[in-house]
Amino acid sequence: MNHLIASIALLFICLNLYGQPNDFKIEYEQIKKKRIFLTGEDTLKSNKDLVVYEKLTNLNLNRFIGQTVGDLLQNDTIKLYAKYEWESTHPLKLAGLNLIYADGLYLEIEANPTQYTHKTSLTGKYDLEKFKKEKITKVKLDKSYFENTHFLN
User: Fold this and answer.
1) Coil vs helix vs strand at 2
2) pLDDT in tens, 33-55
């Protein structure tokens, strides 16, 4: 219990020192409820990741099926990704796009069949602008590793 109180105190001190926007403040009750233990330099980054996690898990992803990837990328929550990576199968055949939000927290987007994007690439890189025109057939939030490392299960 003392560790939890110390972690919460450190969290609020860091938030006040660095003047984080209200969107990234984690309230005491949320921390207590989820048993989040944050210490050291990773505290601020982890709190931002937790806010993004909460927003993503509250989003109805099924409503994007049938829409274009570009439409999905315009969503205020979806566009919070840190980077993206192409998902390829053998031999360098496009399987989809992964939007990465944090370590172990990413969104898998599939658009099969593709009409605008070439399905194969020797470099494993594809044209994002062309992929944005594709219709989404599957979208899935992969969060299990993130949940395990942040004590959220």
Assistant:
1) helix
2) 444 444 444 444 567 888 999 99
Alpha helices in 1-143 (DSSP H): 2-18, 28-34, 42-57, 69-73, 128-131
With tokens 């309230």, the residue in question is 27
Domain count, the chain: 2
* Tokens linked to 120: 């194969």
**Domain limits for position 18:** 2-43
The residue written with tokens 């992964």 in the block is 98
- Report the distance separating Cα 59 and Cα 140, nearest Å: 11
> Which residues are CB-contacts of 146 (< 8 A; sequence separation ≥ 6)?
49, 53, 102, 103, 104, 105, 152
Q: Name the pTM for this structure.
A: 0.70
Residue 55 is assigned to a structural domain of this protein: no
Alpha-carbon span 69 to 60, nearest angstrom: 15
**Number of residues written out for the chain:** 153
Same domain assignment for residues 135 and 94: yes
Is the residue at 10 inside a domain?
A: yes
